[in-house]
Amino acid sequence: MSAMRARRAFRTLPRLRVKVTDWPRRGLVLTDTPHSRCPECGGTGGHTHDYGDAETGEYAGTDWFPCDCWNEDRRWLLLPLPRRTPPGGYSKEPPF
Q: What is the pTM assigned to this prediction?
């Protein structure tokens, strides 16, 4: 019974880290990370699947399937960071 609870807790508890993001605005973000001991993905956060063109058989791309041990969309903005002005101030030249 306790092994079942441990497995359920393994899947539901987030592993949080602080990360600097640049988009849409520079800031510190608290984000979820893949579980390092996940038996399904091995800590990579998902699986890749290469596929090819049906007619020619050539490589056409790679699909990414995220693992259930994390949620790549789970993130919270902790602190917006200010934008730095360039050294010497802004230029008075036109942008072309």
A: 0.56
